[in-house]
């Protein structure tokens, strides 16, 4: 269980998104790279797509920042913004699911963990979904599943390529089996998009695990990943328990997955838009004539 | 009556069965007619068993679902299938023993059968990897399903796994990718698919052969998004809360029918399928034949459209105001 790792890490205070935390803690002008310790001017960091200019560490970014990096200015047209989660099981662990939802909604300004819409990339149309890890670890419940499915269906109907930016701990346990079934639902929609001979690219960012890996993250015609992103099906801890041996240092990194044949290319964030546009062009995307939608 | 593996909550039945056994012994040793007493006690025992099994908690159902003598995929196939022939290999270098498949006949109808396979004892379980399939298992399943698609054989799948195997090699070979491809490709198949949860439906490892036109569950089987043990240690931060998690996750057949995930709940004999495996086999065979009749009568495009819509409808969301609000960011 990859979510397990995530929670366990958080408990130990080694939360993987160190920088996000830091940014929240100190709103100062300067920050410190969690990887190399370099002190950076925050504005420079943001101008560099939140990639450390010294060591290349990719800091976590939220859905809004991601969209700004991919979509042409003012071109992102979001859809299904008003879809919100319910609490179908009346789930309560140490805290009620309804409370967790309210807290995530207040912290992020989002209804649930994914933003979807149609945008342009160098004036070519693209259906874009961006998962937001801040919202309950990017976990996938009914709303995430429904919004992505609708986007895929729309892409199929409008005959446009599709990009899903993945960042998720997997299926959302608080919605039980309904969450698991979102994997099926999205995969079904992707089958139709594929059948229509349209291009689908997932971009795997840190972390992409569990049910998301076992569905749309691995179904791309071309699979892209960010450097050093954690990508896997089962959690490292679970595997260590089964094997009782040490795992390779780069285990479940984007680079490791590429070595084993599951990632086509690793794209540094600073090259992301250029790479996407180039790939889209080579797969038949054309500029929209009256470009301002 | 030599009782086999007893579950904790079945213990109240032990006393009764001891008494029954003693009276039988008595009858054998002497000429006393004890048929009246025997009948009474046996009726009582049956009633107690029924009471216990009607009131099972979700955590207890997991124990029944994991019972070592619960009929497995191969048991069921032996029970209702003629000319069964197991087919091996993913054609990529492996043959997973935790996920098996083959062809056979049910009545006059040739079908493809696929299912997770657990072992009955430790030795068998080691060979079967406790029913936890590797990427090779899911790829073998897809190869066989493609074969069925080509030769127009309906597909019957049987789900019984704690989950897909979590291991170094499984990750290297792309466990996620193998399951994901099955999810997508099963929507493409142009033959009826019927899936049945016969024991444990463990998350993605179950779903990897679980896209179907009809999904059935045996009464005491369970289907989970994550194992209650894992869920408890993540959300409760206490693995001991597994039984609480089992209740909260809504994993039982009736719960999943209510949530619209499952089409039909197959009744089990009192005491669970392990008490009367042949009876369970009859129940399953009847349901499979009924659905085969129904699904084979449908034009293939309708069937595929219905399969898509079935999964499309799963999930619960709240939609306020305009769906196409179209704010530009």
Short recap of the structure:
The complex is a heterodimer of chains A (293) and B (329). Chain A is α/β, with parallel strands linked by helices and 293 residues long.
Topology summary:
The complex is a heterodimer of chains A (293) and B (329).
Chain A: H1 2-11, H2 18-25, E1 30-32, E2 39-41, H3 42-47, H4 63-70, E3 77-79, E4 83-85, H5 97-108, E5 114-121, E6 124-131, H6 142-158, E7 162-168, H7 176-195, E8 200-209, H8 210-213, E9 224-225, E10 231-232, H9 236-243, H10 254-259, E11 265-266, H11 272-282
Parallel strand pairs in A: 6-7, 7-8, 8-9, 8-10, 9-11
Antiparallel strand pairs in A: 1-2, 3-5, 5-6
Helix pairs in contact in A: 6-7
Chain B: H1 12-29, H2 35-54, H3 58-65, H4 73-80, E1 82-86, E2 99-106, E3 109-116, H5 122-128, H6 135-150, E4 155-161, H7 168-172, H8 175-188, E5 193-202, H9 203-207, E6 214-218, E7 222-224, H10 228-236, H11 242-248, H12 253-258, E8 264-266, H13 277-296, H14 300-312, E9 317-319
Parallel strand pairs in B: 3-4, 4-5, 5-6, 5-7, 6-8
Antiparallel strand pairs in B: 1-2, 2-3
Written account of the structure:
The complex is a heterodimer of chains A (293) and B (329). Chain A is α/β, with parallel strands linked by helices. Chain A has two domains: 2-11 and 61-282, Alpha-Beta Complex (2-enoyl-CoA Hydratase, Chain A, domain 1); 21-59, no CATH class. Chain A has eleven helices and eleven strands. In chain A, strands 3, 5, 6, 7, 8, 9, 10 and 11 form an eight-stranded mixed beta sheet that branches. A two-stranded antiparallel ribbon of chain A has the order 1-2. In chain A, strand 1 (30-32) and strand 2 (39-41) form a beta hairpin. Chain B is an alpha/beta fold and 329 residues long. Helices cover 47% and strands 16% of the residues of chain B. Chain B is built from 14 helices and nine strands. In chain B, helix 9 links the parallel strand 5 and strand 6. The longest helix of chain B has 20 residues, at 35-54. At the A-B interface, helix 1, strand 3, strand 4, helix 6 and helix 7 of A face helix 7, helix 8, helix 9, helix 10 and helix 14 of B.
